[in-house]
Please model this.
Amino acid sequence: MDIVKGNMGWIEVIVGPMFSGKSEEMIRRLRRAEIARQRVQIFKPAIDERYAANEIVSHSGLGIPSDAVAKAAEILEKVQPRTEVVGIDEAQFLGDDVVDVCTKLANLGKRVIVGGLDTDYRGRPFEPMPRLLAIAEEITKLLAICVRCGNPAVHTQRLVESEELIVVGAGGMYEARCRRCFEPNLAQLSKEPSPFLAPSARAAGGAAK
Ligand code: ADP
Ligand code: ZN
Model:
């Protein structure tokens, strides 16, 4: 990235579906900042308790300590003046306020690295990520591998029945799918067992594995 260092802050956004490597990429950037002896603070929403409450953990098992926050404003309270780099993972769970928080931090001269899902389980833009993308200096969009066909996957396929926007879950509730294999209405098709779910998953009422 060609952004000149100095007192100026900026916003880097990392988006993509689940399993696309957003957390890995976030951890990679934050580790490098730490190696460069920059002061780093890392946050994630308290709602995401996959694996650990005080750690960002990728699906491949990489981890980095983080601070769990109940809402975006808490990040502003917790960031210390001398902090140079702020990482925020799973920003789609922090609501619209996270946009203001990132803007304030960047205006204070901090490098803000923020990751999150850009689309929801139906393939719709997942607020507030689109707004973060609009104001960011740098955008990285990652893709996963479609578990059905092996093509690049842009979508997060929900495998369980629910029309809630947020269903935080561990193994088997979501998988990566390409645009051809993605079934946005699968979560509503509970009465007709999907041929795309494994028989064991169908027996369990739609929950995979
Ligand atoms: P994200 O934060 O985007 O959910 P993670 O960084 O947590 O992604 O995990 C990425 C890792 O997930 C990959 O390096 C790989 O080991 C694993 N993985 C599991 N399923 C898939 C898939 N369908 N496509 C790509 N990677 C996958
Ligand atoms: Zn596919």
DSSP finds five helices and twelve strands in the chain. Residues 22-35 form the longest helix (14 residues).
